[in-house]
Design goal:
Blueprint (H helix, E strand, L loop, with lengths): L6 E8 L1 E2 L5 E7 L5 E7 L2 E2 L9 E4 L11 E5 L5 H4 L2 H8 L3 E3 L1 H13 L8 E3 L5 E4 L2 E7 L8 E7 L2 E5 L17 H10 L3 E5 L12 H12 L7 E4 L5 H13 L3 E5 L1 H12 L9 E2 L1 H5 L6 E5 L9 H6 L13 E4 L8 H13 L3 E3 L14 H11 L3 E5 L1 E2 H13 L4 E2 L6 E6 L4 E5 L4 E5 L2 E4 L3 H12 L1 E8 L5 E10 L9 H19 L2 H4 L2 H17 L8 E8 L1
Parallel strand pairs: 2-22, 4-7, 7-8, 8-9, 13-14, 14-21, 15-18, 15-19, 16-17, 16-18, 19-20, 21-23, 28-30
Antiparallel strand pairs: 1-3, 1-24, 3-4, 5-6, 6-26, 10-11, 11-12, 12-13, 24-25, 26-27, 28-29
Helix pairs in contact: 4-11, 5-6, 14-16
Length: 560
Amino acid sequence: MSKNRDEFVFLPLGGSGEIGMNLNVFGFGPPSHRKYIIVDLGVTFGDLTTPGIDIIMPDIEFFKGIEKDLLGIVLTHAHEDHMGALARLWPELRCPVWATPFTMYLVKDRLDEAGLTGDVKLHEVGLEATFSIGPFDLRFIPLTHSIPEPSALTITTKLGTVFHTGDWKIDPNPLVGESINIKALEQIGDDGVIAMTCDSTNVFTPGEAGSELGVREELTKLIGEFEGKKIAVASFASNVARLSSVLHAANENDRSVCLVGRSMHRMVGAARAVGIIGNQPVLLDENEASQMPDGNILYLCTGSQGESRAALSRIAAGEHRNVSLNQGDAVIFSSKIIPGNEKTIFALQNQLAERGIEIVTEKSRDIHVSGHPCRDELTRMYGWIKPKIAIPVHGERRHLIEHARLAAELGVPRTHAPDNGQMIRLAPHGPKVIDIVPSGRLHQDGEMIVSANDEGLRQRRKMSFAGHVSVSLAVNKSGKIVGGPDPRISGFPEGRDGQGVENMLDDIADIVERKFDSLHPSVRKDEDKVEADIASAIRKYYRHQPGFKRPVVEVTVLAV
């Protein structure tokens, strides 16, 4: 194919092979001067494998050196896994941003926190807006999800149209926003769609996700069963439809609501600012809530996933300065367990149960529905859009492969389950992988953003699993030890007799002295060589200790 021929390409840099951290790139033009737009720029969150790291973002190495060819960022909705990296990574991208009103409200809030207000060119557009960015003609298509203003996108170039779903479900009775416009989707399909890039989260789940209306009715009934008791409801702050349901259920049961947790205040404030949630019921601050009778207050809390610093964890530990729950009170988890969070959630629930607090989850009551499409909903979407190519996104590898299989069963002529970093030509003659570009993860460590492969982070991970050994000694000009060796170790157990660490320190000191004495006098004056040889001897010691892990070893020789 000619290098000067126009191509319509798709490049996932996040969200294909994982659920979260979405970053999708669309490009048009010949390879020599192709133009790009980004659709969504999200985060995921750290776990036990990333000690000290809370926020993880997609690597944007691909854009280095071609920033002038990046024309804009378009956000489909305001969930963290779709827009949470915008303020953090925008200084390296420096392009305009398009979003609908609710999403833009939160974008401005985040940019203000980052000190970028006024630096970013923002385009707030309507819920069914059409607009152009360079060679791309775009249209927002309202769908239903668990947050206000979720939008699909039609992305049209001279080579045809791609339909990008974003996050969605089919909710026949949405409590926030309008129902899906099926006729509009059918018209898009009739007009012709090259490819659909589509949410894969629930591809293994049969049936449909269900409506938020049913959750609202069940929450109203459930809250009425705890007369005279304090209630806390834990949910995702970003699930604005659920927050609306909780507010309604509280009002129906003559309970005032107190928001607990910064993100709760942020989301409810955004929803009220754009008119999505009204001003009923009246929200109380924490001091006002503490003065209310137990049966007339409901706390709406962050922390449904057992996050250690979230509001509910501090309440469970009795460490919250204003909110307390007692025996007989109730905590309602109106959320699902995100895979990987089981241990932290169960630990939190055990802590609550130990204090005599009743726990209600979606396992026993119908108080949660997913915001993503199940198999029957996917089937309906393919029937409406009728794409020639199916490109599953927003899923782990197993989700993408199963989604591609489902699409083929539904009659889609061609499918491709992508990996992050695969540049896929959609037209002409697609799908075809035409390049593999840099991809990966960036970690936010305090105020710094670094590669996941950063040596310091690698050492931290190793220390967290295997401990740390450091030794210092002072050597004079004659090549003799005049101070130390002084070994220090951390991250090792004391042992059942309490002598494990002391014995290990003695062993290390002996190893250092023996190794130093074995060195030729000329070598002893080479600080770097001495440090390397002694560190090697200490590592050898740990290799020969049955059952011991291999710690990070650091040796410092001071010349005096």
